Amino acid sequence: MKKIGMPTPDAALKEFFKDNAIFASVFNGYFFNNDEVINPDELEQADTAYTESVRTEIKIDKVNKYRDNVRKTSGGLFVILGIEDQNKIHYSMPVRKMLYDALGYSAEIASKGNAQDKRSWTVDERLSGVSKGTKVTPIITVVFYTGEEVWDGPRSVHDMMDIDTRVRQFVPDYPLYVIDMGHDRNLSFSNGPLEELRAALSAIYADTADRDEREIECNIMALAGILSGDNKLYEAAQGEGRQKMCKVLEKRDEKIYMQFKSQFEEMDAELAENRAELAEKNAALEEKNAALEKKDAEIAALKAKLAELGH
């Protein structure tokens, strides 16, 4: 049975988030109760200075992926939006997110400073690297978590600290916004593909997908297979159009059954071959034993004759 190569979760979600309607819905659904505060028609790729600086300033493989899922808005609302996709719980994510965002602000400051006319700068402005009154673009980052286990990691920098209540108010906190796609029952999205992905992952992780009769796009079920690490579900969901979730699971289970059936048949054939070889060897051994017994009988007869002649 030919096995279909399954994309990585990173690659699959990068492709998924290319759709600006899906990208905007992540933020509108999580922060704004599905009101269209983020207009997908106004999203565009973030500035090169913002994305490239992180790649050069810090050597972390995950940064490249993170910066691939970034948009900025135009029009009335100007903000940089970033999605960090995770399928494993990351227990230092608040600090990492804080670092990423800080690098984003630092990159924008450097970019704006380089573009400004420095001839009239004061000593303080030269020290700062930007002119007085320079503004930076707000950055909002969410963790798009698709793992099987409920997110039990910290949701802020304070969550990672043992801190005296008297000191706590003076230590700046940094929140972590986690979208737990497979477990948050209060979560919903107005965007069809995004909501179908949430429903598929929820059903898969709750072991109810094989009884779920709602129709879903095949490509979304395939994506759910990638994110849940189920290659057979990914294979079963190949195709176009919509299918009932339970029917896709039936196809998945049939593929699993056929795979195991094929493996068992191969094992049975190998076992039968081994038994035939063993039977053949046993027959040869019995033949040798019979020949030895015959020789022993001949030797015994010869010894008897020799004994008679000796007398």
Structural notes for this entry:
- The protein has 311 residues and is of the alpha/beta class.
- It has one domain.
- It has 11 helices and 7 strands.
- It has a 5-stranded mixed β-sheet with strand order 1-2-3-4-5, with helices on both faces.
- The longest helix has 66 residues, at 245-310.
- It starts with 8 loop residues before the first helix and ends with a helix.
- 27% of the residues are buried.
- Residues 52-66 have low confidence and may be disordered.
List the helices and strands and how they pair.
Blueprint: H1 9-16, H2 20-31, E1 43-45, H3 48-57, H4 61-68, E2 70-73, E3 80-86, H5 93-115, H6 123-128, E4 139-145, H7 165-168, E5 177-180, H8 192-205, E6 215-217, H9 218-227, H10 231-236, E7 242-244, H11 245-310
Parallel strand pairs: 3-4, 4-5
Antiparallel strand pairs: 1-2, 2-3, 6-7
Helix pairs in contact: 3-5, 8-9
